[in-house]
Amino acid sequence: MIGEYSFLPCTPAGVMRLIESTGVDITGKQCVVIGRSNIVGKPQAMLLLQKNGTVTICHSKTKNLKEICLGADILVVAIGRAKFVTGDMIKEGAVVIDVGMDRDENGKLCGDVDFESAEKKAGYITPVPGGVGPMTIAMLMKNTLTAAKQQAGIE
Ligand code: NAP
Q1: Which residues line ligand 1 (CB under 6 A)?
Q2: What is the reported pTM?
Q3: For residue 155, what pLDDT is reported?
């Protein structure tokens, strides 16, 4: 919350790296995070705020979710419901980051975003699998390295 840390929560940190990789500057952008869990939604919103995004946090009691999503330049979805966010909820050219790890009706791994319809609208979009998951692991390794360096007195 105060922006001072050695270790970032892995999944939100991975999401930030993915957004940075697009070259889209977060400053002043409308950022919408769907989900307010302690491990994803809340820290995600704080990290976007630290990068000067204008952040809206949505959850299960949010009204007009579609309308809010349509205003998002950057949309991070962490709900836990298969293919919940569809293309008609996405602003043209938006950065869409899908944190969800769900199973579809055939038991196949999928995200919270309906990739097929969403990719037609998004400027950038992450797949599931192969998007946020591997980045979470990468950030865990980064934290592990930082911890090891700290213990060894290197950092
Ligand atoms: P969680 O603790 O269950 O939180 C889900 C959030 O989504 C809650 O804040 C909930 O709102 C909100 N929500 C539920 N239904 C909604 C709806 N219909 N409309 C709007 N918001 C709704 O889940 P989580 O731990 O944050 O994980 C979310 C997803 O990300 C899961 O699929 C999980 O497997 C995945 N995940 C992936 C990684 C990765 O490395 N790829 C890491 C962590 C999690 P309320 O607060 O009002 O209940």
Answers
A1: 11, 34-37, 39-41, 58-62, 65, 78-81, 99-102, 132-133, 136
A2: 0.98
A3: 72
